[in-house]
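Possible race condition, two jobs.
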Amino acid sequence: MRRFDRRRKPRTAHARHILVKSKPQALTLLEEIQAAKRPFRSFKRLAKKHSTCTSAPKGGDLGEFREGQMVQAFEDAVWATPPETVPTSFTKTQFGYHIVWVHSVTVPE
């Protein structure tokens, strides 16, 4: 885990994710979410069913976190994703493949 600069206020985000071990499984889930009539509802259902993260019972909800709390590749995906949009790709980290749904991003002034 990285430390954030205490002299400036870090960005915060509220996100959900689906964590899976294999790339083919991530592709399949991503396609299913993108094809759904209600993608957010589908995302939560698939997170509960397929995610290997401890957040799975909560529909993949990670809650709000500050910059520097998550691994770099995951955070880069969160900051690059517009809030409340259907995921278009997945991110690979040492934990596996993440499909990320961003609820909100707060950038301090």
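Job #2 (started ~2 s after job #1):
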Amino acid sequence: MAKDFKFRGLTWEDLLKVSQSELENSMNSRARRSLKRSKQLDKRIVKAIDENLKGKISDKPVKTHSRDLIITPNMVGLKFAVYDGKAFQAIGLTKEMVGFYLGEFVDTRKKPVHSKAGIGATKSSKNVGKK
């Protein structure tokens, strides 16, 4: 049996029904302050959220540079393409992402790829012929 999703004691059905102020009160202090102060969202994001609430989910992701956008329950199911400094990385929003920032799911740094040591890096590699 799968465990029911809860966010700070609220079930998923309760999260969808609560008002914006009640949702803000269930967030941590940084997210609560950010939600209260940032009332202006990008027009494309607002349009996508409205369509999502009406049941029209688009396969095309919404492109944004807003890594500091907090994920709310009405955004779940949407696809965002978040800018990582070089390209847009597509992510799909799920229930478990509620309360987090969009930028937490897109890395801005590439992980280093290490290969074997070069010629002259170790004593044994001095005897290896150059190609």
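The two ends are 60 Å apart (CA to CA).
Logs attached separately.
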